[in-house]
Amino acid sequence: MAHKVTAPLVAVxxxxxxxxxxxxxxxxxxxxxxxxxxRLVESGMLEKVESDSSGxxxxxxxxxxxxxxxxxxxxxVAYAELHEIDLGGAKSKPDVxxxxxx
Length: 102
Fold this sequence. Notes:
Layout: E1 2-5, E2 9-13, E3 19-23, E4 27-28, H1 34-42, E5 46-49, H2 73-82, H3 93-100
Antiparallel strand pairs: 1-4, 1-5, 2-3
Helix pairs in contact: 2-3
């Protein structure tokens, strides 16, 4: 089951122990460390969401073309998730853009 981020930022371990950062509103897909995810759910930083196969979930719409300064951080984060781009410690809009525009 996927989980939606309700905190401004969370760090979640994947099965190999690598840390991935997710911003508020992002969806943490299945496959991440179950204990880590459960800890974040219990602390109120994640909430369980049903998978939506229709594509009409709460994820922001990703604009066409390459990421640019006109995109919101949420759109860039969704783009990064879709393209499996590790944002590392990027938090600000310019830092996130620098990661997704590579």
